[in-house]
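Box 3.1. Reading complex inputs
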Amino acid sequence: MGEPSAPIPAQATRPRLPAVDEVLRSDVAAAALATHGRQPTTDAVRAVLDDLRRMIRDGATPVATAEAVLRAAEAKLAAAALPSQRRVFNLTGTVLHTNLGRAILAEEAVAAVVEAMRGPTSLEYDLGGGERGERDDHVRGLVRELTGAEDCIVVNNNAAAVLLVLATHSAGRETIVSRGELIEIGGAFRIPEIMKRAGARLVEVGTTNRTHPKDFREAIGPDTGLVMKVHTSNYVVTGFTKAVDGPELAEIAHAGGVPYVEDLGSGTLVDLAKWGLPHERTVSDVLGEGADLVTFSGDKLLGGPQAGFIAGRADLVRACQKNHLKRALRLDKLRLAALEATLRLYRDPDRLAERLPTLRYFTRTRTEIRARAEALKPAFAAALGPDWTVDIVDCASQIGSGALPVDRLASAALVAAPAGRQKGRALAHLSQRLRDLSVPVIGRIAEDRLWLDLRCLDDVAGFERLLGELARGTGVEAAP
Ligand SMILES: *Cc1c(COP(=O)(O)O)cnc(C)c1O
């Protein structure tokens, strides 16, 4: 946020500045004092008086009544009171948007977090025996039930899960990975880098596009700690390709006497094909194929808070739990509360698409989204004014966060096209206006137009209010 521009109109004679006390004692100050407190209000009034002094020194003649000073101070206070992390409308068309905080929590998870915030909880306390418990016990049983894993622990995110598995089972030893799977996700997660941090030696086998079973067989030796498969979350290699699939890789690893680990990335617990979505291997599929450990995220397809799961063979999971790194990577009571509540929803798959926002967004049909666009189009067009044409255009939403990188969901968008010649400038200006609303609206610019994909719009009434705010603004000029 930049400095608010305090509207200080000019007056004819050289102004006399009021004293700080005079401003604070005026009738109009009472509301500001009540809202913002004495110290912040005094500081803001001082800052405005400093601004005015500077302006007068530069030859300006601003209005400097106590009321004008207070109004300007209030503008400063209001800007300073805005939190840095704010709610926004995600109309980008990417459902799991990493920059916008990925999965939206279910109401059940929100309630569980609020409850956990307000008081002490049984975080590490076994209410049955009245003795010390383990924090991950709150989700362990659910994950076992939902995935068939023998055991499970949770950490800060999936990057942490991969780090902990490698540090526990491959430190000072080799981890064998196909060259085609040495992925980078979001710039900061690179398998070779994580491997180095974990003290594991990376053994790359095969080529970028083709890896064969014998590549793995020949690489396994006395120094091998793990055989690993990494889900190529954010890209696909097509054409002349060959990868070794899970079951065969598990067999090869086990014949060589080493555990087989898969970094699944998104980690879905249910077959999305049930809702007409693209099929994605579930955690229980991967365990069924013979993986000894699976790592996956909490805030991607699973639809929960940021977290990373390590699920699979009990002895291998316990070893991760005992690693001192686990202490540095563990989850706090709030996220554990959210995670437990989210996992509970999976026990009732019939109502999952209603209750879990991520799945609700995925399953929203183009017909529903178009109907919503039709209803909002007149208000949007009115808010933009005559310099813009507003249309409803079919588009394709992305799942995001590297989950199902090539699949698209049929959607529809409100699309605004500027009439004038300087389209780039008009579009940048409109995007800024949308970001400046009391709840910022984030869309996307493509093909010289601004797109608002309505797939993830839940709060329609709130969005309508914002369109009113946009309409009351100073007008969005599109013509050069
Ligand atoms: C997303 C992803 C990660 C990183 O997970 P975070 O939860 O963001 O830390 C790691 N591996 C794969 C394959 C992924 O898709």
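In summary: The radius of gyration is 28 Å.
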